[in-house]
Amino acid sequence: xxxxxxxxxxxxxxxxIGTTALQASQQFTRLVPSIVVVIAYAAAFTLLSxxxxxxxxxxxxAIWSGLGxxxxxxxxxxxxxxxxxxxxxxxxxxxxxxxxxxxxxxxATPH
Length: 111
Prior knowledge:
This protein is mainly alpha-helical and 111 residues long. It is 78% helix and 0% strand. The model has no long low-confidence stretch (mean pLDDT 91). GO terms for molecular function: amino-acid betaine transmembrane transporter activity; antiporter activity; choline transmembrane transporter activity. Belongs to the drug/metabolite transporter (DMT) superfamily. Small multidrug resistance (SMR) (TC 2.A.7.1) family.
C-alpha cells in the first residue's frame, strides 16, 4: 500500500478519534477529551498533508471526509447510542460506494 494511502487511513483514524472526543468533551467543558481533540486533529491534518504530496486534494478530501463520516456514524451508534434511519443508512452506503469507485477506477490515485 503506498505511503499516501497509509497516511490517509491514519488521518481518518485520527480525525475519527478527534471527533469522538469532541462529543465526549461536552463543548470543551471536560479537560481530557478536549486535549484529545486538539492532539487528534493536529495529527489528522499532519497526516493528511503527507497524502497531499502525491494525491490530488479533491480525491484525498473525498476519501478522508467520506470514511470519517461513515466511521463516526458507526461510533455514534455503538458508543453514544445514536440511531440512524433508513435514508441515513442509504446515504452512508452511497458515500462508501463513491469511495470505492474512486479507489478502484480513478487514475488520479496511486496504485
